[in-house]
TrEMBL record:
Signal peptide: none annotated. It holds the Pfam family DrsE_2. This is Peroxiredoxin family protein. Coiled coil: none annotated. InterPro entries: DsrE2-like, DsrEFH-like. The lineage of its organism: Bacteria, Bacillati, Bacillota, Bacilli, Bacillales. It comes from Brevibacillus centrosporus.
């Protein structure tokens, strides 16, 4: 079920690849004060990262892994959750060129 009429995508590179990695997204390191943050997520009924990834995919969000970062780190598409796409900077730029909103972290 899509929530917007827009096409949505998340491009993951380097550390961001952990979000869509089959194993790493289960054990993402949290910053200092992580216990309080984890409790805050639970109190606010916010799902864990693996569930958020599944929810995003079910809503039609494209998850794109950066090919260059994968090559540098030594990862393959099989290392990631099912349903991701692999692309580089050109893939992101092609997707973002017509976007009204682009978020970077």
């Amino acid at each position: 079920m899509k929530t917007t009429k827009k096409e949505e995508a998340v491009t993951c590179t380097f550390e961001g690849l952990q979000l869509i990695h089959k194993e790493a997204h289960h054990n993402l390191p949290l910053p200092a004060g992580k216990e309080a943050m984890a409790q805050g997520f639970q109190k606010a009924n916010i799902p864990a990262i693996p569930e958020l990834v599944i929810m995003a995919q079910e809503l039609g969000v494209k998850l794109i892994a950066c090919q260059m970062a994968m090559d540098v780190i030594g990862l393959t598409k099989e290392d990631f959750v099912d349903g991701i796409e692999v692309g580089g900077a050109v893939t992101f730029l092609d997707f973002a060129k017509d976007a009204n909103v682009s978020l970077s972290f």
